[in-house]
């Protein structure tokens, strides 16, 4: 698991860094004395699996830091005070360690994090495909084959290169089923496969199909999130 440490206390950082180095399933990517520095690192690296985070820090505290994360990795809080525990666990943190931290307690926390990590990897592997009911049969459909999803009253249409599948689902329900790393909702009536985008122009996304490009509208309330989620390079 790739880790970072965020703590303004230098001695505390050194202890956690040493613990990470002696744990064979952890890899230290970076260590930061402020949450502001860490934010910049996280936005440029989506391979971070675990954050060791202090609560009381200057400029931005740990709670504010967690509020900035759209899809946070696992977080283990390291704090000298118990009073923040209730707030921290409302963010579904993996564990809450009180300073000074002994290695056995540290190892118990990171073992829990590793178990969650391995389960999530298994889940992601399983979710590379889904089964669609077609008549009396179940058809296996690879997620990469889905170009876009379109709402149709109480149904949705899954558009692929070769076929369309109409299923009895709401857009909210299908959005929860599709992995957010691959699919994004860009309109009240449309979810698209990010990897199939050819062009984004004004308020239109053009998707690659076997018959050329298919234009799909971008809703005003969805455009800002779309621009954040794509790998945008501007000069």
H/E element string?
Answer: EHEHEHEHEHEEEEEHEEEEEH
How large is the count of helical segments? 7
How large is the radius of gyration? Answer: 21 Å
Sum up the overall morphology in one term: elongated
What structural category arises from helix and sheet content? Answer: alpha/beta
Largest β sheet strand count, sense and barrel closure: 5 strands, parallel
Percent in strands = 25-35%
Low-confidence stretches: none
Strand order, sheet with most strands: 2-1-3-4-5
Structural write-up:
With 235 residues, this protein is an alpha/beta fold. Helices cover 31% and strands 34% of the residues. The chain has 2 domains: 2-125, Response regulator (Rossmann fold), CATH 3.40.50.2300; 129-229, LytTr DNA-binding domain (OB fold (Dihydrolipoamide Acetyltransferase, E2P), Beta Barrel). The protein has 7 helices and 15 strands. Strands 2-1-3-4-5 form a 5-stranded parallel β-sheet. Strands 10-9-8-12-11 form a 5-stranded antiparallel β-sheet. A 3-stranded antiparallel β-sheet has the order 13-14-15, with no helix packed on it. A hairpin with a 2-residue loop joins β6 (129-134) and β7 (137-142). It is elongated.
What keyword list fits this structure?
2 domains, 235 residues, Rossmann fold, five-stranded antiparallel beta sheet, alpha/beta, 15 strands, five-stranded parallel beta sheet, single chain, OB fold (Dihydrolipoamide Acetyltransferase, E2P)
Q: What's this entry about, in short?
A:
With 235 residues, the protein is an alpha/beta fold.
């Amino acid at each position: 698991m790739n880790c970072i440490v965020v703590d303004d206390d230098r001695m505390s950082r050194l202890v956690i860094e040493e613990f990470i180095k002696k744990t064979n399933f952890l890899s230290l990517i970076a260590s930061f004395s402020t949450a502001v520095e860490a934010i910049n690192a996280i936005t440029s690296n989506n391979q971070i699996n675990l954050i060791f985070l202090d609560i009381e820090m200057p400029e931005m505290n740990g709670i504010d830091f967690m509020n900035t994360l759209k899809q946070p990795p696992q977080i283990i809080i390291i704090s000298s005070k118990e009073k923040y525990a209730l707030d921290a666990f409302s963010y579904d943190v993996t564990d809450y360690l009180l300073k000074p931290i002994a290695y056995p307690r540290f190892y118990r926390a990171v073992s829990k994090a590793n178990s969650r990590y391995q389960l999530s990897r298994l889940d992601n592997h399983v979710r590379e495909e889904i089964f669609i009911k077609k008549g009396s049969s179940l058809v296996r459909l690879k997620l990469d084959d889905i170009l876009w999803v379109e709402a149709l009253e109480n149904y949705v249409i899954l558009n692929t290169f070769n076929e369309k599948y109409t299923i009895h689902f709401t857009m909210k329900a299908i959005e929860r089923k599709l992995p957010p790393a691959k699919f994004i909702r860009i309109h009240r009536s449309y979810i698209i496969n990010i990897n199939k985008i050819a062009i984004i122009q004004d308020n239109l996304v053009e998707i690659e199909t076997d018959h050329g490009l298919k234009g799909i509208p971008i809703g005003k309330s969805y455009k800002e999130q779309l621009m954040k989620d794509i790998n945008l390079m501007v000069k």
